[in-house]
Design brief:
The chain is about 20% helix and about 50% strand. The two termini are about 20 Å apart. It has one domain (about 5-85): Single Sheet (q64v53_bacfr protein fold), CATH 2.20.140. With about 90 residues, it is of the alpha+beta class. The protein has one helix at about 60-75, and strands at about 5-15, 15-25, 35-40, 50-55, 80-85.
Length: about 90
């Protein structure tokens, strides 16, 4: 998976622990788009959880990414980096 269409990392501090939430959109070999969500504590070596969701077109995948961003922003997450080739 080389071509990332969308990549965002968010973080927030809770009880002196830094949590992160990231999501990326990749094109698949079959013309679909894969949204990968990862989250956990920054000090952990691996993600607490990884969730993969497939979408038939890029617009749906970006819409889901936008909803996730808004939901997490309301919970107090803030942007660490935002590398995007697709506008939300």
């Amino acid at each position: 998976m080389e071509n990332i269409y969308y990549n965002i990392k968010l973080y927030r501090e809770v009880d002196n622990k830094v949590r992160y939430y990231s999501f990326k959109i990749y094109p698949t070999l079959f013309g679909e788009y894969l949204l990968i969500r990862e989250y956990g504590g920054v000090k952990n070596k691996s993600a607490t959880r990884v969730v993969k969701q497939y979408y038939s077109d890029l617009k749906d995948a970006v819409g889901a990414g936008k909803q996730l961003y808004e939901k997490k922003y309301k919970k107090g997450y803030r942007v660490l980096n935002k590398l995007s080739r697709v506008e939300l």
